[in-house]
Amino acid sequence: MSGKAVKVKITYCAECGYEPQALDLTKALMYEFGTQLTAIEIIPWESGTFDVSVDGELIHSMKREGGFPEHATVKSAVRSRLGSAPGV
Amino acid sequence: MTVDRARWDKGITYDEFKAAMTRNQERFAENESRVALDPETVRTFKSLPKPLRVLVLAEDWCGDVIANLPILGRLDKEVPALDVRIFYRDQNLDLMERWLNQGKYQSIPVFVFFDENFRELGHWIERPASVTERRAAERKKIFAAHPEFGSPDASVDQLPEDVRTRLQSELQKMREGMVAFANGEVQRELRELVSKVAV
What we know:
The structure holds two protein chains of two kinds. Chain A is an alpha+beta fold. Chain A has helices spanning 19-33, 62-65, 71-82; strands at residues 6-13, 37-45, 50-54, 57-61. The mean pLDDT of chain A is 91. Chain B is globular, with a radius of gyration of 18 Å. By secondary structure, chain B is α+β, with helices and mostly antiparallel strands.
């Protein structure tokens, strides 16, 4: 355990049916990092949004990158902030 | 992929769609009650020389479906020559692929007009461009009037929770204020489409 406080925010368009993608990513992060994460915040929004930020840094934006994020990309961003290698 | 009688019969009616909704049922009913059908719209549809089938792609979680399908539903009740069948988008992706928005987006609702023999006459997707444009302009005004909301292009997750709540409230007010305009624009586009394709 690194002791660092890492928070993930997932903002999804609640009018676009993106709940499954938001929940899948949340589940993947919960299983991968457990108590290493301080919090996972899920924010219902609109306008075709699917944004993911880790500790305030926008890792993925549907408007910027297009589509949904690869789970590996988000996990990698979390790991780099935790200072841990995969599986650690 | 063609739409024929067998496929058509797999669709559900407007009332069946409403009864099967698992969410947004109250919002949908409220929107339906607020639809003011323009007499010109009713006249245009009632003057159709032949029955018109309307295939709809929809889902009950979609904001544009909740906003715009009630307009077609009200027309369906007013105009005996209209026959509406609704198909869930996510269970009918072959149909969705045929009427993609700009050739790539699975936007709904989609209204596809057919004659009695399932010959496609025209289609309508999601919402009028005029509504999208006005909404964007109004959104810009909100951000300009409230510097605390930050940039309209920034992710809202950067905003403090109380500020985000106020922004959501402002956006909601803006959408409410646009309902009459948006409903009018939907009807105008449907009238124009039907006037062109009526045979």
